[in-house]
Every structure is written in structure tokens, then in C-alpha cells.
Amino acid sequence: MKTVVIDPGHGGHDLGAAHNRRLEKGDTLRLALALEKQLQSMGCKVILTRNADTFVPLLERSEIANQNSADAFISLHRSSQEGHSNPNGISAFIQSNASRVNRAYGNAVLNELSKVGVQNNLGVLEGNYSVLRNTYAPAILVELGFITNEQDNELYDQYLEGYADAIAQGIVKTLQETEHIPPKKRDPIIVSIQRRLHDQYNAELSADGIYGPNTEKELIRALQMELNRIFNAQLKIDGVFGEGTKQGIPDLRRGNQGNIIYLFQAALNANGYPAPLTGKFDQDTENAVKAYQQSHNLEVDGIVGNHTYSSLLSQYPPSASTVRLHQGQSKDPVIQSIQHNLNNLYSSNVELDGAQSQTTQCALIKGLQSELNHLFGAGLSVDGVMGQKTLASLPVLQAGSRGDLVYLLQSGLYMKGYDAHSDGIFGEHTQGIVKEFQKSCGLPEDGAAGENTFKRLFS
To answer: In 10 A of CB 123, how many CB atoms?
Structure first.
């Protein structure tokens, strides 16, 4: 039985939006109670963050979902905007840089609502909301029309039960379609790091307990802020571990303390080397540093200089200052991170040996096939073979594209020896790398990855 947490927005002294004596907190509760019945009739276990006109703090709403291991979370709201433009329509928000599951979830709910009757479908938008950021389960925040628009209000009242049924259909459809996607492991230590990055450094992160490119980028941003604050390093706060950031780091050793110590302790934990998150460089921290240095072929001195810091913060993506290991060497940290992501996202069960291998390439192709089935309903056999049906199902990836398909393309390029940034964003750097690969294969150098480029890359 799947567990769905419904969050009626606002409540108690928090009225939400108001218009002509109509209150958002009342509208969201009415819909939540109707949605609860619909989901229960469809076999779901349903938990409401509130079932009466009471106030529930934002973080507590997420904790209700997390503590009950929710499979899906939906927060119900009404939009508001007074003025001459009189906007209208429904929308769904997902956390910035959320996974493809969240976007599919938002689209499914909006599509079902549109069938019932709405003025306008404004689509899935990105936002940085507490209930989305701090909830582990796939989470969306739905704006059910504008409370300041009379026609939206009439539709809301007329189709309340229909809206409840539509949302339930969208939720259940998403749960069914994503059932095969393995849950990511959530580390409570990473959750605490993500929350501190958000609270202290205004990081736009989902506290999902998963260390990935977004969390590492925010960790680097925080480090740059501290270097500017303490040493007036005048670094650009861009989250890129470049040469300026690398040179700005002082040697850190036992006895030091402060925010920079906390940040490197966070990086140690994220890399699998437990260190106390105290901001104090103690004996336990030194032991963790030495263990990391030994396993990464660094000088084992227990001192964190720019080489150790560079190694800790070079997974997502490799920075310009990261020296890639030569082909033939066995533990390339970038390939290790690719293998880790393949295992986490697609249950690939690839050995984390950091080596280029047929097994890892097969797992990359399986990842592509899984994504094509998920995004386009391609109906492919996930067999790791780049056959004609798989090739024909691939879209053309080009400048401006982003997402997991781009990440897999970049990973394939890196595996072939090209210094591609595995960040899921098809920018100028990726376009240049694609052109370089195309040139080496005698293909037209258009910088777009289509069928022929994928065929040569994964053959």
C-alpha cells in the first residue's frame, strides 16, 4: 500500500491568500479532505498534515512525510495577484533541480486537472519552497487557480470533487509509472549538511540526503564565501572549484576550528569518511583525513591542503583544476562517481573501480534505455545493447538540453577519454566536446548529439 501525504496549505493564524472574504486556508482544507477520500478509495494510505483549521510549521509538514516514509507528497494552495491583469490558471511547483520523477508527477496531476476544467494550465515551474526542499518523497506544490480571479473561484467550487479525483488519478498514475525506479539512499548526515548549507549560505537545495552535483556545488560556494570573508580572497561565488579557489585554501590541521573546518568535514562525510561535524579539527578528524589521503594516493600527513581539498571536491563535475588520471590507471574518481550514479539511479550493480570497462558502458546504455522508456514510452528492452530501436528512440541533444539523458551522454564522452563535464547541462563546453568527438569519428561537426553520434559513442 502506497502512502500519500496531503498538505493543505496555511491554516490557523496563517490565512494564506484572501479575496472578498474567501480564504486560501479554507479552500485548501476542503480540497484536501475530498482528495483524502478519493485516494483511500483507490487503495492508498493517506496522511494529512492538518485536518482542521490549525497551524502547522513548514518544517513539521515535511517531517510528517519523512517520518511516515511517504511515497508521494502534495501541498495544496491557491495563487493570488490583485491588479488589472487578473491572471488565472493552475500550476505545479517542484524544487529547483529536482529529479525527473518530480517533474513527471507535476505534469501528471496538471494534465488530469485540465481534463476536468480549468482556464489555463501554466505548467510545471521550479521554486525553492520549504515543503519541497525538505521532503524526501517526490513532492509537488499545486496552485489550484487564482483566488483573485472570479472564474477560477467558480470553477474551484463547481469542480471541487472533480479536482480531487483528477489529482488522485495523477498521483496514482505517477506511483505506478515510477514503481520500477529504485529509491535513492538517504543519508541523515547529508540531510544535516544540506540544511546547514541552506540556512547559513542560502543554498537552493532539497534536503534529500543524497550527495550529488548540486550539493557539491553549494559546498564549494560556501567555501568561496568563507575564503572571501576570512581572507578577502575576492573569489567569484560560482560553485566551481577553479584555480583561484584552490590557491585560496590555507593548510588546515589539528587544532584549527571554524566554518571552513566544518565544510571540509562535510566533504569528508560526503566522500564516505566519517568525521565529526563540529567545526573543530580534532584527532578523529585527522584520522579521517589520513584514511582518505591513503586511499587516494595523497601524502598521508593529516593536513588538509589544496591537493586534499581538490580531491574531496572534484566529483560533480570535474573542475578545470582536477588532473584526470591517465588511461590505464585504475581509480579515476570521475568514473567512480559515474559508476556510483548508475548504481543509485538504475540499480546497475557496477563495481566502483573507477576503471573504463565494457560493464560500465553496458550500464550507461541501460540507463539511456531506462530514460527513453520513462520520458517517451519507447518500450525498449533494457538490455544494454545499443540496437537500432534504441538509436531510433533517441532525441537530438544539443545546446540548451538538460537532464539525465545529457548526463549519460557526458558520461559516455568521459569514458571515451574526453574531458566532458558530467553536470546534465548541454552548454558550450559539452558542445565543444561533442564536436571534438565528431571530428575524430569523421562525422559532421555540428555539436549536436543525434543517432550517428550516439552510435559511434556507444558502439
So the answer is: 12
Rounded Cα distance, 363 and 349, in Å: 9
Burial of 253 (0-12, 13-18, 19+ CB in 10 A): middle
pTM value? 0.55
Tell me the average pLDDT of the chain: 87
State the number of CA atoms in the 13 A half-sphere of 373 facing the CB: 16
DSSP secondary structure code for residue 399 in this structure: T
Q: Is 72 left (phi over 0), alpha (psi -120 to 50) or beta?
A: beta
How far apart CA 375 and CA 6 sit, in angstroms, is 26
Q: Please name the residue that has the C-alpha cell 534536503.
A: 207
Cell 534504441, residue located: 390
State the Cα–Cα distance between residues 224 and 233, nearest whole angstrom.
Answer: 8
Three-state DSSP class for residue 292 = helix
Instruction: Inform me whether the pLDDT recorded for 181 exceeds 60.
Output: no
269: cell is: 562525510
Q: What is the arithmetic mean of pLDDT over 408-426?
A: 83
